[in-house]
Amino acid sequence: MREKRTPSGFLLKQRAFLKLYLITLTEQERLYGLKILDLLRQEFKPFGYRPNHSEVYKALHDLIEDGILKQVKMKKEGMKYQEVVYYRFTDEGYKKAQLYKRQLKAELDRCEALIRKAIKDNFG
The dihedral of CA 59, 96, 32, 40: what is its sign? Predict the structure, then answer.
């Protein structure tokens, strides 16, 4: 998967976390329409992170472009014309999502080790 790195090499980007969480939501079949934003804000609130609408949709669009997710439009229950967009794995999407998660886990482990070293070196 393509992720932009900062000059320091850290991958700790908001979009990487959002993509990881969106994959998890998809695995749990809880990923649908605009309710995603409220759910993510509740999940990240204890950490002081409040993703905005555009960040979430950029992450979703990245996952669609990477061939992991696809959009499925369905009629909203009880409504004649209103549609709700659900996000589901593509045929190969689940395998690609697992690869992305493994790659991100390796990067996060590396970042965690660097952070622990910095804390130890600077704060005892």
Answer: negative
> How distant, in Å, are the alpha carbons of 13, 21, 31, 48 from that of 28?
23, 11, 8, 24
CB 52 within 8 A of CB 38: no
pLDDT in tens, 28-62: 776 666 678 888 888 888 988 888 888 888 888 99
Q: Are 21 and 109 in contact (CB under 8 A)?
A: no
Q: Give pLDDT tens digits for 2-24.
A: 555 444 443 346 778 788 888 88
* Sequence letter at residue 73: K
Query: Is residue 109 a contact partner of residue 10, using CB atoms and an 8 Å limit?
Result: no
Task: Count each helix (H run) and each strand (E run) in the chain, helices first.
Answer: 4, 2
Q: In this structure, which long-range contacts are made by residues 49-55, counting pairs with CB atoms below 8 Å and at least 24 apart in sequence? A: 49/14, 49/17, 51/14, 51/18, 55/14, 55/15, 55/18
